[in-house]
Amino acid sequence: VSKSVPKLPSKILELMDGFRASKALFVASKLKMFDHLKCKGPVKAVDIANEIGTSVCGTERLLDACAALGLLEKTPQGYSNTDSANTFLTSDGEYSLHGYIIHSNDHLWPLFTNLESAVKEGSRQNHRAFGKKAEDLFKDYYHSQEGKQRFMAAMHSIAHLTARDVATAFDLSQFKSACDLGGCTGALAHELVQIYPNLKVTVFDLPEVIANTSHFQPSEQHTAPVTFVSGDFFKDNLPEADLYILSRVLHDWPDEKIHVLLSKISALCRPGCAILLAEMVLDDEKKNRSTALLQSLNMLVQTEGKERSGSEYQALLEQHGFTDVKIRMTGNLLDVILCVKT
Ligand code: SAM
């Protein structure tokens, strides 16, 4: 009797294809194909190829793959964007993910190519991916204007998409002033002043970042202005505030450095002052959330940090007097932890 053939492992096959699908999305974004198709009727592959200067045969295969992946619609008249592509994949949409996609292609892809070494060595791979040993993660990003712009655009795209859920996860109306440490382009800060018109919000970030924020400010502002202050949160004095925000900051650092930062914040906080963390919070058993667990590998290949569970954050915070810790899973890309100094 011949042995039966096992059922096709669709999950494994999908994952084997995953890198091809990601790269198809990245290249279509990099070539701005979704911009060329924005809010237009169907366009033929040959016309897109002529417009962007690519081969017809390559363009047609890429467009077909994107259509099969659900990013485009294909009819006998040609290709058009899906609604989701118009919203998230065109480069100039308010909620565009283009910045993060380009960052994924240009920066994260070469790093993930070295994942095997990262796992063997337990450390970041920037020297292998980019051929140099930088002293610090952010010096890597900010050494060129292009790298800095790309990183800030990537942070901005995710921060803008998550800001509403982060700002409203808890009622923050009891706070009069907030300081967003590592607040980058101010995407969350602008959402906070809209939702809490009486809140004075300061964004604190490295001088290279603060010098580059004007490009990311909302075109119309009907709220109190956000203040931008430059400095190094490990070395310099921090602005005073009732609420300190750390969004996607702690995951960049090992526990030792987090203790330095939390003790500086704690020294400035009276009872009733608080810290708001926005991170992908892992479940305690670290087994349920692949997006967050993959993000932790993303931190391995490029930082000294990692994603942490709610109890791990709680343990870090409690050592600095922040004992009233509440966690909200938002269903968005970032979860929120509010902890009040008691
Ligand atoms: N909070 C933003 C968000 O959620 O989109 C940006 C997160 S990004 C991963 C980390 C931020 O921390 C960057 O804007 C970076 O410039 C800032 N940063 C890193 N080291 C810093 C330091 N020593 N002092 C101040 N800001 C720093």
Name some characteristics of this structure.
342 residues, alpha/beta, Rossmann fold, 2 domains, 15 helices, binds S-adenosylmethionine
The oligomeric status of these chains comes to: single chain
> Which CATH class of the largest domain is shown?
Alpha Beta
Ligands, ions, cofactors: S-adenosylmethionine
User: Per DSSP, what share of the residues sits in E-state strands of 2 or more residues?
Assistant: 5-15%
Quantity of strands, as a count: 9
Shape annotation: globular
Describe this structure in words.
- The protein is α/β, with parallel strands linked by helices and 342 residues long.
- It folds into two domains: 10-91, Winged helix-like DNA-binding domain superfamily/Winged helix DNA-binding domain (Arc Repressor Mutant, subunit A), CATH 1.10.10.10; 100-340, Rossmann fold.
- The chain contains 15 helices and nine strands.
- The chain has helices at 10-30, 33-36, 45-52, 56-68, 83-89, 98-112, 115-121, 126-130, 137-142, 145-168, 187-195, 207-210, 255-268, 290-302, 310-318, and strands at 72-75, 78-81, 177-181, 200-205, 227-230, 243-247, 274-279, 324-328, 335-340.
- Strands 5-4-3-6-7-9-8 form a seven-stranded mixed β-sheet, sandwiched between helices. Strands 1-2 form a two-stranded antiparallel sheet.
- The longest helix has 24 residues, at 145-168.
- It starts with 9 loop residues before the first helix and ends with a strand.
- The model has no long low-confidence stretch (mean pLDDT 95).
- The site of S-adenosylmethionine has 16 residues, from helix 10.
